[in-house]
Amino acid sequence: MRKPMLTAALTATLVATAASAQSQGAAQALYDSGKWQEAAASAAALNTSAGLALAAEATTAGASMVPDAQKKALFQKAQDYASSAIAKDKNNADAYFELARAQGRLAQFSGILQSLGLAGDMKKNLDQAIKLNPNLAGAYVALGLWNSNLDEKGFIARRATGADKNQIAPNFEKAIALEPNVAVHHIEYANALILQKKKAEAAAELQKAIAMPADTFWQKRDLDAAKKTLAGLK
Do residues 32 and 218 touch, judged by C-beta distance below 8 A? Predict the structure, then answer.
């Protein structure tokens, strides 16, 4: 009698896993189409680490589409989602990455002392993400931007955080080596190069980006931004 019960329990588990995967896929599809609010709500409702990480990603991305007065609250919400994702699975590299990404965005809307504190937390979370998944290209992009933005702020920011301009290019190059056909990596590298007044190198990266296909709502948005940035460099 025990065997059928075990089989039934296993079947129920497999069905639940498949349903969760389908729901995660549905939330991802909403996000890819630009419906970030619905995507965040759908992903968070799954109450899984992967779902909460996606909710954080969608919320951070969505903040780029609202007035500045509303951005800070969304970045804080994204932080909450990512922290909850980590609480459910401390080995979820994507969750640490999303927490770092939300912190980086939030730092742009914070005072100097708070932003430097967030920069320190961001670096720790990116390091942890890479420790858990050394092939997480986005984390290297974020590290490249982290070093670039803090280096640009001057000596005090560099001294307080340990940012190093010599770590900008290696991190971007690592990301691009891992995912050479992801346009946003080239776009973000271009942004970092522009901060360093390297316009020719930035233009070269943007040329690579705009030659790549754009399928999702966000990729198309990145492509439009890349074209505008490139036009401004000429």
Answer: yes
Half-sphere exposure of 155 (CA within 13 A, CB side): 0
- 92-144 pLDDT, tens digit each: 999 999 999 999 999 888 766 678 888 999 999 999 999 999 999 999 999 99
Phi, psi of 91, rounded to the nearest 5 degrees: -105, 15
Other Cβ atoms less than 10 A from the Cβ of 233: the count is: 13
Question: pTM of this prediction?
Answer: 0.88
202 alpha carbon, distance to own chain's centre: 21
Rounded to the nearest 10°, the torsion over CA 71, 75, 78, 84 is -140
Q: Token match 């990404």: residue?
A: 101
Q: Give the CA-trace dihedral at 95, 76, 169, 179, to 10 degrees.
A: 40
CB 63 within 8 A of CB 105: yes
Asked if 155 contacts 108 with a C-beta cutoff of 8 angstroms, the reply is no
Other CB atoms within 10 Å distance of the CB of residue 24: 17
